[in-house]
Amino acid sequence: MLRDQLAVAERERPRARSRLTWPDRAWLALLAGTLPAGRLAAMRLFITPGTILRWHQDIVRRRWDRRSRRGRSGRPATHRKVRSEVLRLARENESWGYRRIHGELAGLGITVAPSTVWEILKRAGIEPAPRRDGPGWAEFLGSQARGILALYFFPADLLNGTKVYVLAAIEHGTRRIRILGATGHPVQAWVVQQARNLLMDLEDAGTRVKFVIHDRDANFTLAFDDVFMASGARVIRSAGPGAPDEFDHGTLDR
């Protein structure tokens, strides 16, 4: 690292501020990840640890951006006949939501994603998921926000290149986000313990959870749900975008 810094300094004019190129940044960031923290702190560097961390994040972002673009030429445009058929079904059947229309199209042999049906209806000014009976999802969230807790697992890359899984929770009433923990191997025992720790923290804060929402990630096991159900909370497994409209809102409100 010191040699590389010297090469950068010699490359510039005397007394001029050294300018790091992208290869310089990538090389120094990778070298920094191989050194112990104590050794790195004792070295005389013209960059701060925060700068190295920012460079590393930029490397990870560039890598995933390149992978996401590899072999993809973009989503094909929806045929005009499909669009007209979606709008026809929606206008002739005002109580049908986008999922019902998607099912009817599949029966007619028309292959289209539910999200595409949603977009077509939304752009035409038609409600994709019309209200039938009972409170809507937005009304339910507003009335029960203080008792709703949502959990989610997301991956994160560390400076040394390893990947960990972070378990986070958000309290809908206060919008407070809690980072419950991070691990490279989210086994059931670890996940269940995080649920117990979260409930103890909420009890200390005087917060009572009525509903726990999470997706169908395999890390959310039945044992994990049992921890919350034992405290009187109801666990709701979402099925992706648009799923809340399939819930029985009347039962949830009770």
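(ticket continues) Second input and output from the same batch:
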Amino acid sequence: MPTRRRRATPAADRPRIEDKLLAAMEKLLAKGGGFSSVSIEQLMAAAGLARATFYLHFRDKGELLTRLMERVRQEIVVSAGLWFQHAELAQREDMRRALVGILGVYRKHHVIIDAVVETASRDAQVARLWRETMDALCAESRSAVLALRQAGRASEAATPLLADLLTWSVNHCALQYGRRLRGAQLEKLADALTHICWNAIVSDVAA
């Protein structure tokens, strides 16, 4: 007997929905305006989804934005590769690859990241979301520094505070330059950031 195909549950279907909504949100934001100007109706139409689908997955636009930024943050973490996974094993080129990957995610999602940063100055909820995003990235950097310290490869200056400062510095460079640079210019930015971060964190003896 033929079996009925099981319908995907909202939870199982959510990643696909989020992919479409992230692309749709970035498309709408690229036309100008901020999050407040994008209605749920516009968003779902741009994503090619029914309006009712939105409320199967999200309470409101605030929850949606939180989920979209979480996906961007996860992409940043994954793009960092060995540096965030096993920093104690990382070499200089691993750090460079991590920075190239991070810059690539900022460039890919610059529309939504720029909108979050700009909106944070006047919206407390978005400001909290951006702060939580950066706190999570700083925590990843602190863990990497700790792994290097435990492996005896970190310089004396490699403290949690330094990890935070470098994370914010990379974020600033990615926001200011990353999306505009291509080719050799982007490579030079990655080289400069690698020089700063590697020499600040890794001891001369270990390097």
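Agent notes: Residues 1-8 have pLDDT under 50 and may be disordered. The longest helix spans residues 124-150. Closing as not reproducible unless the customer responds.
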